[in-house]
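For concreteness, we quote verbatim a single protein encoded this way:
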Amino acid sequence: MKEINNDALKQQLIMASGYCDKFSADVIPHTHLFHILAGDYIVREGALPAYMFYLARGRTKLYVTLANGRISLVDFFNAPCFIGEIEVLDETHASRAVQAIEACWCLALPVKTCRTLLLNDAQFLRHTCLGLVKKNFRNIVTSTRNQAFPLVNRLAAFILLTQHDGVYKEKHTQVAEYLGVTYRHLLYVFAQFSAEGVLRKQQGGYAIGNRAALMALAEEMEPGAALPGH
């Protein structure tokens, strides 16, 4: 993650992402700009973030380490949204790891100097509450889909969500847990996709061979929905 000193680009991202609409206070003088490469971490687990981030462009994923040492995939965030807002509200909250799926641009406010300003900003608090409600609802939808739709549909949507530049690289064990299926069942569907030419196995992952087929399967769960890469 690298801080970028480019006022013109920062202003462009502020305008395009609706950043200022999330605050009643003038936060522009405090705002920093960061660029995060695919695979880099925006927040590391267990470390209290120095900044509250606003994902202006890109996609990220959230991890948590369980008591038994297993790393569990929890959620995905698409721009625009806050990252680290819970740590602003609750300093004792244990941070979870947030990793970039693709190159991301984040606007950021230093927590140490801006916490009091943010906690007294009703507009920020309202948007934070709405954002947390949306994240909770998305998790409910994911849980419902895990029970209502075949793995072939859910895996297609998951691949589209997590691929980067047409390549999918997620760990099978974490994906099986996230989708609520056995490791063997997951491998069976991957083999099916490979045999049909939907995916092509390569070192370290799979190249997407037929994006249209994946999108058709994903859209069966939510016709007309905008999907990543659509």
About this structure: The two ends are 28 Å apart (CA to CA). The first strand starts at residue 2 and ends at 3. The longest helix spans residues 122-148. Residues 19 and 63 are 25 Å apart (CA to CA).
